[in-house]
């Protein structure tokens, strides 16, 4: 659905940019295959008006002109839709080059590479890359392994509600969730979706690795107001455990759990193959501790210990 709409918008934009005179709705309908397939005049009119509004929202300046017969025509004059000269300094060019190499997912990598080539052709300066010149083994990447990433990214962009099956870490079976997606955030190497859960009537954060099956997009409008992106990012960080409100005391096997050691406020060697750590305790810590399996034992608080035990039992049940 998203690909078909994007192709229709592209065809409409090319028609409006490529004409020297205003084109009527009738002429546009006869030139674009998707409009020819519209079931009725009303269906075509609704589709065309939505597409025209979407192109204007994307920044295309579409002029409306009435001819001598009183028929309305449309065109996008090139002089009104020409980008200003690109003036990037070396540091800005280096930042764009780094951003283009960050993504290792194939489809995003292709889009980023193509955009970078167009910017260079338009005069963006070539930036020296010391790391590339030295063939460093270190490379900045954002891994994306979850199949749910791309449909959710499109749904966030297009503001479309989605439905998917989601298995909580302490649940044996997944359950269906209806969500208005806001944004995707990467935290500690894991991707999270923040959005409005329609069934619960509240904002929720979902870890993409726990989404099972296909993500299904719905042709409907959002019912809840989308908050500011900074507020959403803070929600994800808090939900995933970034915001600490308490302190947890755990035992950690010697030589294991280095991310936990880096986060610890104190470490005490117990001389029996274990160390005792105090770490900041926030929402989501139980899910993180489970990832270390038998190398971690929670001492306190009791509710954190119970949550970790419940999650491990759920994993054992399959």
Topology record:
Layout: H1 2-18, E1 23-24, H2 25-31, H3 33-36, H4 41-57, E2 63-66, E3 72-75, H5 90-102, H6 106-121, H7 130-133, H8 149-158, E4 162-166, E5 175-187, E6 190-197, E7 202-207, E8 211-217, H9 229-240, E9 244-253, H10 258-263, E10 266-269, E11 274-282, H11 285-290, E12 296-300, H12 302-317
Antiparallel strand pairs: 1-3, 2-3, 4-5, 4-8, 5-6, 6-7, 9-11, 9-12, 10-11
Q: Kindly state the mean pLDDT as a whole number?
A: 79
Strand content: 15-25%
By DSSP (H or I, 4+ residues per run), the number of helices equals 12
Q: What does the main sheet amount to?
A: 5 strands, antiparallel
Q: Count the strands?
A: 12
Shape: elongated
Radius of gyration based on Cα positions:
26 Å
**Secondary-structure element series:** HEHHHEEHHHHEEEEEHEHEEHEH
Structural class by sheet pairing and helices: alpha+beta
**Helix content range:** 40-55%
Catalogue the unreliable spans.
127-138
User: What is the straight-line distance between the termini?
Assistant: 35 Å
Instruction: Going across the biggest sheet, name each strand in turn.
Output: 7-6-5-4-8
């Amino acid at each position: 659905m998203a690909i078909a709409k994007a192709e229709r918008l592209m065809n409409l934009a090319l028609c409006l940019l490529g004409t020297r005179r205003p084109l009527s709705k009738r002429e546009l309908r006869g030139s674009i295959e998707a409009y020819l397939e519209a079931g009725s005049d009303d269906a075509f009119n609704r589709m065309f008006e939505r597409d025209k509004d979407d192109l204007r929202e994307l920044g295309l300046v579409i002029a409306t002109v009435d001819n001598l017969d009183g028929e309305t025509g449309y065109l996008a004059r090139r002089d009104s839709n020409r980008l200003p000269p690109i003036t990037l300094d070396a540091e800005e060019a280096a930042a764009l080059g780094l951003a283009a190499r960050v993504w290792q997912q194939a489809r995003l990598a292709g889009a980023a590479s193509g955009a970078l080539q167009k910017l260079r052709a338009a005069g963006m300066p070539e930036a020296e890359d010391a790391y590339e010149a030295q063939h460093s083994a270190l490379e900045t990447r954002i891994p994306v392994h979850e199949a749910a990433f791309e449909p959710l990214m499109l749904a966030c962009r297009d503001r479309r509600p989605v439905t998917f099956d989601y298995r909580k870490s302490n649940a044996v079976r997944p359950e269906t969730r209806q969500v208005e997606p806001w944004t995707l955030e990467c935290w500690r190497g894991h991707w999270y979706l923040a959005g409005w859960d329609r069934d619960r009537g509240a904002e929720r954060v979902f870890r993409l690795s726990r989404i099972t099956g296909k993500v299904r997009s719905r042709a409907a409008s959002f019912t809840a107001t989308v908050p500011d992106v900074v507020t959403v990012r803070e929600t994800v960080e808090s939900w995933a455990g970034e915001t600490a409100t308490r302190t947890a005391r755990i035992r950690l096997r010697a030589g294991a759990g280095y991310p936990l050691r880096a986060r610890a406020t104190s470490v005490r060697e117990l001389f029996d193959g274990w160390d005792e750590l105090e770490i900041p305790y926030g929402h989501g810590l139980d899910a993180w501790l489970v990832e270390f399996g038998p190398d971690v034992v929670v001492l306190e608080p009791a509710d954190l210990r119970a949550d970790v035990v419940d999650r491990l039992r759920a994993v054992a049940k399959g």
